[in-house]
């Protein structure tokens, strides 16, 4: 006579064990996906249980918990892959080279190089800026130095350097200054 319980009996006795593990791991399971994983783990544990290796309840807990952890890892990895793909697609779409304004965004025309060699433009710009604002233009735009390096060199904070840049950007939006500098050609 075989005293082995059927899976239906095991399930009835251990269904709460699956819910307990889900609750203990703080898993939200509105679509019962984790419960299904736990059910499969319970089935696998039922099929592979060896009485001489330890208590059945301990083995069930171990199998269910590890199966749920595997599912969380798999979902997390899948989510990261989707996020990376979406980020890559957004990056390729926008490419970061857009003017943004009240009329919407429009691409920067790549054929027009910035006038880095136009000394009269830089001279005119420098005459319209404070010393600190000019330092920001010179170090950030012309020399392409990082903020931290500029802050160390000028014996100030990174936030101060960023503030110089905000002031420059504010001035460069002024239509009168743009006209003086003939920047309309570079829009």
TrEMBL record:
Domain of life according to the entry: Bacteria
Q: Which segments constitute the RNA polymerase sigma-70 region domain?
A: 11-77
Record-linked Pfam families: Sigma70_r2
**What InterPro entries does the annotation carry?**
RNA_pol_sigma-70_dom (IPR014284), RNA_pol_sigma70_r2 (IPR007627), RNA_pol_sigma_r2 (IPR013325), RNA_pol_sigma_r3/r4-like (IPR013324)
Q: Where is this region: Disordered?
A: 83-103
Q: Please identify the protein, giving its name as recorded.
A: Sigma-70 family RNA polymerase sigma factor
Species of origin reads Lentibacillus juripiscarius
Instruction: Tell me the organism's taxonomic lineage.
Output: Bacteria, Bacillati, Bacillota, Bacilli, Bacillales
